[in-house]
Amino acid sequence: MKVIKFGGTSIGSAENIKKVKDIILQQNENAIVVVSALGGVTDKILNAARMASIGTGFFHAELTEVKNRHYRIIEELFGKEADDVYERVDKLLKEMEKILTGVTLVGELTPKTIDRIVGLGERMSSHIIARYIPGAVWKNSADYIRTDSNFGKANVNFKVTNQLIKNEFSGLQGIAVTPGFIAGNNSGEYTTLGRGGSDMRLP
Questions:
Q1: Angle between helices 59-78 and 41-53 (to 10 degrees)
Q2: What is the pTM (predicted TM-score) of this model?
Q3: What is the spatial distance between Cα 20 and Cα 11, in angstroms, rounded to a whole number?
Q4: CA 88 from chain center: how many Å?
Q5: What is the CA 133 to chain-centroid distance, rounded?
Q6: Among positive and negative, which fits the CA dihedral 128, 67, 39, 52?
Q7: Cα–Cα dist 126/44, whole Å
Q8: Mean pLDDT: which of 7-11, 26-30, 126-130 is highest?
């Protein structure tokens, strides 16, 4: 089984995603495709979170840019024939808005909240790409990468993670698409491995 990683620039446009699709379909073995958020999206999410933390509603401008970016790429890839992927992305965008609104109300942005929101970029991009690759299945990395609760740069429990990965992918036939950067703790909360964390190699 092969693991292939695509960073934000590699999937930063519909044209680039089409090239990624060609690369994936050329593989002659089962593959796990790990993808980052669309190029620049993580920074926009973090900027929106900072705006929310100082108690302003200005985060809506950044959120609108993130939304429009994803919707534009979905339309370029699928036309009007992808209601399901629109619904998945829209659900995550609404989750982002709800969290940011909460941050505005309390005026506080904790590492735990950042981890919950910042990984939404990877979740959105991975849903789009999983839908675009014929026969691909989407897998949530938080289900099989287990960490402690050091939010922002969580430490992987490799013993548990290795077993969870074996359980998750032992029967894989074809292509699985999964977000990078995101993991989960023992309480089922989202954690992140830090910027560049999806490049980590498991022992």
A1: 150
A2: 0.91
A3: 7
A4: 12
A5: 16
A6: negative
A7: 18
A8: 126-130
